[in-house]
Amino acid sequence: MRRILCAAVAAIALVTGGASAQTLTLGTKLELNTLDPHFFNGFPQASSHSQIFDALTWQNDRQEIEPALAVSWRLIDDLTWEFRLRQGVVFHDGSPFTADDVIATYARLPNVPNSPALFTVFTRAIAAIDRIDDHTIRIRTSTPNPLLPLDLSRVFIIRAADAGQTTSEFNAGKVNGTGPYRHVEWVNADRLVLQRFERHWRGPATWERVTERVITRDPSRVAALLAGEVDAIDLVPVGDKARIRQDPRLALFSGPAAVVHYIALDSARAQSPHVGAKDGQPPLARNPLMDARVRRALSLAIDRTAICERLMEGSCTPASQMLPPSFPGTSQRLQPDPLDLNRARALLAEAGVPNGFRLALHTTTDRYPKDSQIAQAIGQMWTRLGLQVSVEGVPGQVFFGAATRQEFSAFIAQYGTIEASEGPRAVLHTNDAQRGLGAANRVRYSNPRVDALIVDALGEMDPEKRIAKVAAAIEAAMEDQALIPVFHPTWDYASRRTLTITPRPERRFNALMIRPAG
């Protein structure tokens, strides 16, 4: 009887909602680790910060660029863009937004200490900014950059007076944006609480108060939704999708992801920390991951179809590159590598390691759906190829810093892009901090031919020619197996039936995506 009563109470809470019509509580796997909008170019930060801060431009849920803090922009010549800024915008403390705030924000980006992934990839081409007046700027670029309005949608604007703040000061609550919600409370790895900013230039947002609760364990997020403790959750476990779909109290929402689940390989160093000879074998002369044939063999040993159909239960599609081929600029020629152990073994023999080698594969344990299980499956597939593989799990908060310090030889991660050239320039181009290229190239992969093709594509102002050049750069990188694309995930969300969630291709889960149903 007690169990029946508890179930009834949970059902009532779910139907009526665990919160009033003016409040929203989310249960999310995204673990926000900073309130500094320029510290870490990552999924959790972009998702949460987009509620507190605005950028010059905004991408709608169809990935189209729309005005935000800039009302219009035009290309004066191949190296000069003029942006007209929105008037009447105020920060959360009531101070007015002007051109000075934009200039100070962009100047801060290269100077954020200990950043795991800088935002300079989006401002790499900016040579100078001319202040015409309080609400007009001209941005001069060192090379033609046809995607500057798109790039600037990723950089959140702060007050010029706050540009000297440290990351620690932001994290202590000194947060002042122009976004639709203002910061109330943040507890690292636990929750973010926001209050509607009534003076936002778009008008008052949907929800008066928003709480993002970090619930990294998949069963716990589902349980919180069923108990009415949260109104919506992200990354619905694939094993729970059918159950949620059949429950009349709940709604399930799914959408394609502009993300690749990939393996990065240390191809730059002759000696790599987690690569060596198999037990009882002679020492290796050098790191075999430096050989493209070895990297291709590892790709051919992965059964992507089995991962998507069995492990992910249909919530992904096999990948051949960094974005699904439906996106403009992607290669229409590339296909996901099929499982081919015979060809893979032949490539290892050609590369001089017919008996395989020892390799540690590092993975997050709490970041992506089934991240540990997927890594274990890939480890077993590589073992069948003849490698001696260990799979090492690392918490997400530790993982990315270690990867940036090049502490791994092979690791699994995800990278989300909003345009086909963004992944190549951030992940595949040789790391070049001065030019803002290769900012997410944590294994220091480098190929001069691929670099030249990427730079050529980035500077092409003709849209049709540019699409062809981006595709050529991607094909060259995949021919060299710069990384191993495994699959493109599907974003799955669930909520009370009284809500509607609009999925976005990039990894996001926030109040801006959710509104009352009907």
Description:
The radius of gyration is 24 Å and the shape is globular. Strand 16, helix 11 and strand 17 (388-394) form a beta-alpha-beta unit. By secondary structure, it is α+β, with helices and mostly antiparallel strands. The strands form four sheets. Strands 1, 8, 9, 10, 11, 12, 13, 14, 15, 16, 17, 18 and 19 form a 13-stranded mixed sheet that branches. Strands 4-5-7-6 form a four-stranded antiparallel sheet, with helices on one face. The model is unreliable at 1-20 (pLDDT under 50). It is 28% helix and 23% strand. The protein has 15 helices and 21 strands. Helix 8 packs antiparallel against helix 10 and helix 14 (448-458) runs antiparallel to helix 15 (463-479).
Summarize the structure.
By secondary structure, this protein is α+β, with helices and mostly antiparallel strands. The chain has 15 helices and 21 strands.
The total count of strands amounts to 21
Biggest β-sheet strands, sense, barrel = 13 strands, mixed
Weakly predicted, low-confidence segments: 1-20
Number of helices: 15
Strand residues, percent: 15-25%
Helix content class: 25-40%
Helix vs. strand class: alpha+beta
Instruction: Provide the gyration radius in Å.
Output: 24 Å
Mean pLDDT: 93
Overall 3D form: globular
- Terminal Cα span: 37 Å
Question: What attributes does this structure have?
Answer:
518 residues; 28% helix; 21 strands; 15 helices; single chain; globular; alpha+beta; 23% strand; four-stranded antiparallel β-sheet; 13-stranded mixed β-sheet
